[in-house]
């Protein structure tokens, strides 16, 4: 008596799994039970490639307060223009400088006598996103901006201009690792691999390194030395899921 006659319901699909991370051997049969059993090994693997960043993006600008809005706005405009001039003089292209935020707020203080908020002047903030294409010059550029009047540096992020090189390396690592895993699994199971019947890739974006300089307030006279910076390394990760048919 065969297996199908012993069961009270039809057996349409039988799966046997080896409990290895990201690995599985499957035996699947078509619904009409007339086709051959499809034997497949499923594996997954990850590859990681590292590279040195060659681009830095920093958000910096000015934030000034005063009693009269017109005066504060004029002073902030003058300071912001001085910062941009300092950056371009230091070698940053004008096209790599763009306005990131411009805000005008009414400052308020709490009056404990009346229990109400009272106007205390105005704050004008003008922040630029600056792309630095020579990461070794970042510290010098920050110092130049601070000396020109910048009193707000919000963060620095590093990236690579050509991530495809790292992507290719990580992809090759992932595929090679997946194939090696499948071959090892097949050896342990006493079977042979055939062709690849499925492959799927998941790409993790290049990991930006972010350095927090949030709300720095420095007087121009203090900005006499290069700001120390470190670019470190960036990593990009590729995961592949692959299915190999088993040789008959």
Give a structural overview.
The protein is α+β, with helices and mostly antiparallel strands and 248 residues long. It contains 4 helices and 9 strands; from the N terminus they run H-E-E-E-H-E-E-H-E-H-E-E-E. The protein has helices at residues 3-6, 69-89, 138-148, 164-189; strands at residues 23-28, 38-51, 55-66, 97-111, 116-132, 152-159, 193-204, 209-212, 234-246. The chain has a 5-stranded antiparallel sheet, covered by helices on one side. It has a 4-stranded antiparallel sheet with strand order 1-2-9-7. Strand 4 and strand 5 form a beta hairpin. The model is unreliable at 1-21, 27-37 and 210-224 (pLDDT under 50).
Write out key terms for the chains shown.
5-stranded antiparallel beta sheet; 9 strands; alpha+beta; 4 helices; 41% strand; 248 residues; 4-stranded antiparallel beta sheet
Short account of what is shown:
The chain is α+β, with helices and mostly antiparallel strands and 248 residues long.
Strand and helix map with partners:
Layout: H1 3-6, E1 23-28, E2 38-51, E3 55-66, H2 69-89, E4 97-111, E5 116-132, H3 138-148, E6 152-159, H4 164-189, E7 193-204, E8 209-212, E9 234-246
Antiparallel strand pairs: 1-2, 2-9, 3-5, 3-6, 4-5, 6-8, 7-9
Helix pairs in contact: 2-3
Structural class: alpha+beta
Shape: elongated
SSE order, as H and E?
HEEEHEEHEHEEE
Would you tell me the overall average pLDDT?
80
Low-confidence stretches: 1-21, 27-37, 210-224
Number of helices: 4
The biggest beta sheet reads: 5 strands, antiparallel
Strand order within the widest beta sheet:
4-5-3-6-8
Radius of gyration: 31 Å
Distance between the termini: 25 Å
Q: Summarize the amount of helix as a percent range.
A: 25-40%
Question: What is the strand tally?
Answer: 9
Q: What proportion strand?
A: 35-45%
